[in-house]
Design brief:
Blueprint: H1 3-11, H2 52-57, H3 81-90, E1 100-101, E2 105-111, E3 124-129, H4 139-147, H5 156-160, H6 168-188, H7 202-206, E4 208-214, H8 221-240, H9 242-254, E5 271-273, E6 276-278, H10 279-282, H11 288-318
Parallel strand pairs: 3-4
Antiparallel strand pairs: 1-2, 2-4, 5-6
Helix pairs in contact: 6-8
Amino acid sequence: MNNSIRQFLNKSKADVISHSVKCIIPEQVSLPTNLHPPTSAFNSYTNKFKNAQDFYDHIQPIPFQTNTLPKDRSEIRGVDSSIHRFLFNKFKWKEYPPILKNEFMMIQFFPHHHIISNFRKSNIAFAVNIYTIPLFNSIRLRDAMNRYRGRYSNLQFFKTKTSPIQSACGRSQTKKLFRELFVKALQTSGVINKEGNDNTSVTDKLKGVYAIHIYKVPITTEQKDKVVQDYSAMINKIVNDKNIWNTLNQAARRSKSVNLQPVLPNVRFSWEVGNCKDDRIRFPFINMTEIQSKKSEYTKRFKKNANKQRNQNQQDIIK
């Protein structure tokens, strides 16, 4: 031991190092006894399969692949990744007006008969854009940090602009939160057991794709309640407001002219395992007749434009 340390310990009035070591026994913790084993979405399968082909021949959809409203956040899925990028690049909010806008988010609703809804993975699907969330979850603070030119402006922090949304965990937790609040709004809005006056069920009106631009993540209980209230108001508007529904129908009809040809080759229409594949597993609500007609329509249009351009080039050469 160092001499200076030994002298310090010898001159100390109180023992710096206790010679008696006390062992603290932790209190006994009682484990919960009412935990339920995890359940699987495939528990509803009643068939006893002998081989893979037998399983393939008796495909049964899981709840979110049926015409029902979600009862849990896990029953709200997304859309194909290629369609996701196409949706946010093509349908700007000025051309396709949002149905809800507040300090937390902006939502564009694509009904079930919209061309985009063919590529949804669940009856109600979310396409979420989380890259609009500002640094520190505050637009004012983000702008103030961008304007800062003080003595610390050369620090690495001000150059990288890191954000929790850049992590997979941050993105996943944010999406889960907005799905969970939507399901809560469905349960508290009072429209689940209500039928529309035009003989169209509530489920048929609500199903489709909800494109959500997130501006701010609700943190406090009051903020989460505000999101649930706005969700509920949007749900009631879709179900009960005929003017809103007429506007959505007009937007869906206009979308029939949308050119999907550049993105369709990148869409994965089915899951394939060996020689087994099924289109219903990937997109359970897709209308392949509509998609095939779109492909043939785009092919004819492309050939017509190509022939027109070829004739124009020949005329230019002659001149």
